[in-house]
Design brief:
By secondary structure, the protein is α/β, with parallel strands linked by helices. It has a single domain, classed as TIM Barrel, CATH 3.20.20. The chain contains twelve helices and ten strands. The strands form two sheets. It has an eight-stranded parallel sheet with strand order 8-7-6-3-2-1-10-9. A hairpin with a 7-residue loop joins strand 4 and strand 5. The chain is globular and about 50 Å long. It starts with 13 loop residues before the first helix and ends in a 25-residue tail after the last helix.
């Protein structure tokens, strides 16, 4: 372990930092983004319910196999896939671990390591995220099992009196501790302080709150956390109006920023990502996607739980990935609508 050179030392060796930097840069490579397939058992059940499938282990496994075994062309636009713990341990019907399926395509497996949101005591219906206990051991297992990055979601809500300073500080400290633990175990941390789009507030309020959330990076500075290996900071509900693009300005810049779809329709999520990347303002980092619903809605509709429709579902996934890959470099020309079309994918108080 290197000797501390300042109060901000990361305690990482040059080789460790180099490995993390390479992973982080690969995640946000031009024209590529993340497929978020980290839905919990309960959330996956809601997805399957929409196509009249029971929420069984086998149905969840079969659906994830559909996603991960899509034609290798998917790797042209998908750099990483975020897995849920159950999915990390699953395999194809032929017995090939999903992690290996992704690695063979040149896609980096990632893993959701938080254990969900819980009420924040003393707050007005705010929350924090649990899972720090035993996190180092879990990260070590996931790294050994082939993962290269991790995800941890904290949630902030906008209302007349929230987010409170208490909630922002609590979640910023949690994210900083998570990021440091991940890096010590060789995983690039996706730092996700998610400002929910729920509410009737205006754009100026969303901008103000998002700027205040830069507390996350102040807390990271106080931890042994390397900024150059922090893969992304995520924000929601970006509007096509260029003024909205100004509402995230991280205090310290990671290698890239990946946007959530925020319950927008598939097409809107793509068009808005493209608008951000064609905006003439200064953009010193890659701006790409980490989409779950906005990459999967059409897939589920086309598949419908029928083996005969697996190829149709995979074709939808490839179509959406290609559309968003183009949007990530400002070259989406439209015409990539899938089976879900312009349907809103918004879920109030969204949970994974």
């Amino acid at each position: 372990m290197p000797k501390p050179t300042s109060r901000f030392t990361t305690y990482l060796t040059p080789a460790q930092e180099d490995e993390l930097r390479k992973i982080a840069n690969a995640i946000v490579a031009p024209g590529k983004g993340i497929l978020a397939a980290d839905e919990s058992v309960g959330t996956m059940g809601k997805r399957l319910e929409n196509i009249n499938l029971p929420n069984t282990d086998e149905n969840r496994r079969k659906y994830r196999e559909l996603l991960f075994t899509a034609d290798n062309v998917i790797s042209n636009n998908v750099s990483g896939v975020i897995l849920f713990d159950e999915t990390f341990r699953q395999s194809t019907a032929a017995g090939v671990p999903f992690v290996k399926v992704l690695q063979d395509k040149g896609i980096i497996p990632g893993i959701k390591v938080d254990k969900g949101v819980v009420p924040l005591a003393g707050s007005l219906n705010e929350c924090t995220t649990q899972g720090l206990d035993g996190l180092s051991e879990r990260c070590a297992e996931y790294k050994k099992g082939g993962c290269g990055f991790a995800k941890w979601r904290c949630v902030l809500k906008i209302s007349e009196h929230t987010p409170s300073h208490q909630a922002m500080m609590e979640n910023a400290n949690v994210l900083a501790r998570y990021a440091s633990i991940c890096q010590q175990n060789g995983l690039v941390p996706i730092v996700e302080p998610e400002v929910l789009p729920d509410g009737d507030h205006d754009l100026e309020t969303a901008q103000r709150v998002t700027e205040e959330v830069r507390l996350v990076y102040i807390c990271c500075f106080r931890m042994p956390c390397s900024f150059t290996q922090t893969a992304s900071i995520k924000k929601k509900k970006i509007n096509r109006d260029p003024v909205s693009i100004t509402f995230f300005l991280p205090l310290h810049l990671p290698p890239g920023i990946t946007f959530l779809s925020g319950g927008q329709s598939e097409e809107d999520a793509t068009i808005n990502l493209n608008a951000i990347n064609t905006y003439a303002g200064r953009k010193p980092w890659p701006l790409t996607f980490s989409y779950g619903r906005a990459l999967q809605a059409s897939v589920l509709k086309a598949w419908g739980g029928e083996d005969a429709n697996i190829k149709a579902g995979q074709d939808e996934l490839i179509r959406r990935a290609q559309a968003n890959g183009a949007a990530a470099v400002g070259k989406y020309a439209g015409g990539g609508e899938g089976a879900a079309g312009g349907e809103s994918l918004f879920v109030a108080n969204h949970a994974y």
